[in-house]
């Protein structure tokens, strides 16, 4: 743990507040920690505000690896660069930035291609350390290491992020909206825009109307889909979904002996052009694949399933039906080029971020944000660090 001054920069450690999770499933504890200076090619960021994503909740509960504690969660955020390590030229002190769990090194074969957003040099993982060094920049006041989460760890007043995971953005965008582009909204909108390339007039089916599913609906609306069918077991979500462009609804619990895929095939006269699985359940991926249209139907997987989950497809259906299934990590978006585009879309009133934010709390009430998400009362709860 490098928590002494950095010889490359002359910078000093910072003492600040962080919401630390000591044990799985237990309330976060706001305590003082030490944040080390950035190492070469890293930046230290003062977080302005952050939001709570369902992935934080998933790993907060996880008792076995890759669950590890103590840890600082949070990966949807916006902040200001406080200091930079050696050899950082992309951003400078005072820049407004959005950290992302997806890297964009700009040098590897994948980052230089428009076909992928999966960086070869810095692949996505749930590492407890930084991507370049594998070590932590956090310790408590007793010197115990506190682990990182998704290369961001935004539930702290200051964090250290590798420059490949940082995107400079226009500081004019409201921070309580911009932070949503750090993960959830970009994932959903990007899946329609970048991964699926949904055309105007298309039919889209969305399995799961949580925040990611609604972001998919928002993206489908922007792309000009003519029919956006939402599938969920909670009828209370249907009214909300209308605000995001969903035109039709299916409650899988009211279909009797009919499967969801049968219902969608009947509704669409043969299947949807694009099916998005946003829950993280293998059975739903298979249902989505089944009700995608033969010949050109595409199933896009966004939901995070349990470790080791397997998909079961008929070889006959794959070969003879001409369908495809693909994953969409971070919506297929490239952080350093596509996130600024989404910022512009919001500024131009093309992308409606406001309707995603249902609650805002101060840092001291961060556990309330967890309760709201657990109880299904919030889409995105924005947490202000100092307000």
Automatic annotation (TrEMBL):
Keyword presence, Metal-binding: yes
CC cofactor: Zn(2+)
Domain Alcohol dehydrogenase-like C-terminal: 212-346
Keyword Metal-binding: yes
UniProt enzyme class: oxidoreductase
A Pfam family per the record: ADH_zinc_N
Lineage: superkingdom: Eukaryota
Reactions catalysed: a secondary alcohol + NAD(+) = a ketone + NADH + H(+); a primary alcohol + NAD(+) = an aldehyde + NADH + H(+)
Entry keywords, A to Z: Metal-binding, NAD, Oxidoreductase, Zinc
Domain Alcohol dehydrogenase-like N-terminal as annotated: residue spans: 40-169
A Gene Ontology BP annotation from the UniProt entry: formaldehyde catabolic process
Any GO CC annotation of this UniProt entry: cytosol
One Gene Ontology MF term: zinc ion binding
Cross-referenced InterPro entries: ADH-like_C (IPR013149), ADH-like_N (IPR013154), ADH_Zn_CS (IPR002328), GroES-like_sf (IPR011032), NAD(P)-bd_dom_sf (IPR036291)
EC number(s) on file: 1.1.1.1
Family: Belongs to the zinc-containing alcohol dehydrogenase family. Class-III subfamily.
PANTHER family: ALCOHOL DEHYDROGENASE, ALCOHOL DEHYDROGENASE-LIKE 7
Subunit structure: Homodimer.
Name under which the protein is recorded: alcohol dehydrogenase
Gene symbol of the encoding locus: LOC103502639
């Amino acid at each position: 743990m490098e928590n002494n001054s950095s010889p490359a920069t002359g910078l000093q450690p910072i003492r600040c507040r962080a919401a630390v999770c000591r044990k799985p499933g237990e309330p976060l504890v706001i305590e003082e920690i030490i944040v080390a200076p950035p190492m070469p090619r890293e930046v230290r960021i003062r977080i302005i505000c952050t939001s709570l994503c369902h992935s934080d909740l998933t790993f907060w509960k996880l008792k076995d690896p890759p669950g590890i504690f103590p840890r600082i969660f949070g990966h949807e955020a916006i902040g200001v660069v406080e200091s930079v390590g050696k050899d950082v030229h992309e951003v400078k002190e005072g820049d407004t930035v959005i950290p992302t769990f997806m890297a964009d090194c700009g040098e590897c074969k994948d980052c230089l291609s428009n076909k992928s957003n999966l960086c070869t040099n810095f692949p996505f993982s749930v590492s407890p350390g930084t991507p370049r060094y594998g070590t932590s920049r956090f310790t408590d006041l007793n010197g115990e290491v506190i682990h990182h989460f998704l290369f961001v760890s935004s539930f702290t007043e200051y964090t250290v992020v590798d420059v490949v995971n940082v995107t400079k953005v226009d500081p004019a965008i409201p921070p309580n909206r911009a932070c949503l582009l750090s993960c959830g909204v970009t994932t959903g909108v990007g899946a329609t825009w970048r991964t699926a390339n949904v055309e105007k007039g298309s039919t889209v089916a969305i399995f799961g109307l949580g925040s990611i599913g609604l972001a998919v609906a928002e993206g489908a609306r922007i792309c000009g889909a003519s029919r956006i069918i939402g599938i969920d077991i909670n009828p209370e979500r249907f009214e909300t979904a209308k605000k995001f462009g969903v035109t039709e609804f299916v409650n899988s619990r009211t279909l009797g002996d009919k499967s969801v895929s049968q219902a969608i095939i009947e509704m669409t006269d043969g299947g949807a052009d694009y099916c998005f699985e946003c829950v993280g359940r293998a059975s739903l991926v298979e249902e989505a694949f089944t009700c995608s249209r033969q010949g050109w139907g595409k199933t896009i997987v966004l939901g995070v399933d349990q470790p080791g989950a397997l998909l079961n497809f008929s070889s006959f259906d794959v070969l003879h039906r001409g369908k495809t299934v693909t994953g969409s990590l971070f919506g297929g978006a490239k952080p350093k080029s596509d996130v600024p585009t989404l910022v512009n879309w919001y500024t131009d009133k093309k992308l409606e971020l406001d309707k995603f934010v249902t609650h805002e709390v101060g840092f001291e009430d961060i556990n309330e944000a967890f309760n709201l998400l657990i109880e299904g009362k919030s889409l995105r709860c924005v947490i202000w660090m100092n307000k």
